[in-house]
Amino acid sequence: MKNVMNKLWIENKSLIVFITLMLVFRSAVADWNDVPTGSMKPTIVEGDRILINKLAYDINMPFTQQSLIKLADPKVNDIIIFESKAADKRLVKRVIGVPGDMVSMSNNELTINHKKIPYSTKNLTTNKVIIHEKIANNSHTIQLTNSPSDLASFKAVKVPKDYYLVLGDNRNNSADSRVIGFVPRKEIIGRSSKVVLSLDYNNYFLPRMERFLLGI
Q: In angstroms, rounded to a whole number, what is the distance separating the alpha carbons of residues 175 and 65?
């Protein structure tokens, strides 16, 4: 048995080393994540594959979420990927509140640290509204439906230490901190700022070339 294993190693060591290094890279440095739902529309749509920068906040031990060296903390407006125990799955959301922030929402309009966030309408249709939301001098787009939602308002909450308040850009259709609560820092595995590629689920999985390498 030992001779067989030695022979396999000798004959395939280059392939084995390559696969091992690739797995380590994807585990601790960078990976991509399939987005199967529309909770981050219009920023990220169903079928996007987004790049995950796993060195954005920590250097982790490969194949674990054990932080070896802390590099930074998530900031407001970061799009983070985290392994949610509350939701029992990996989620992609936008950071709205960091530890110490006081956050509330009334009719889909945010107030952060007693300051109302400015909004401007970009586009109106019969089913949805696309709006610019400006937080911390950074403007991004969110999507609202024209139907009432129980998620449109919540009372002021203070974000605890080592936790984050996150929301989906598709505000009426996102199971975010309004559903699962604050996100623990230890659950966050990385940050995304780019779509690698995109496949149209409604059109035979054809590639959406206009979304390839798109900044988000």
A: 23
- In whole angstroms, what is the distance from residue 101 CA to residue 113 CA? 6
- Distances from the Cα of 100 to the Cα of 59, 96, 106, 113, 153, angstroms: 25, 12, 20, 9, 20
17's tokens: 């080393």
Say yes or no to pLDDT of 142 above 90. yes
- 107-116, long-range: CB within 8 Å, 24+ apart, which pairs? 107/152, 107/153, 108/144, 108/149, 108/152, 108/153, 108/171, 108/172, 110/135, 111/156, 112/76
Confidence (pTM): 0.90
Count CB neighbours of 51 within 10 A: 19
Pairing of strands 163-167, 214-215: unpaired
- Angle of CA points 67, 87, 89, to nearest 5°: 60
Q: What is the pLDDT of residues 22-59, one digit of tens each?
A: 666 677 677 888 888 999 999 999 999 999 999 999 99
For strands 183-184 and 163-167, give the pairing: antiparallel
Record the tokens describing residue 91, joined without a space.
């989620």
Phi, psi values for residue 186, rounded to 5°: -70, -15
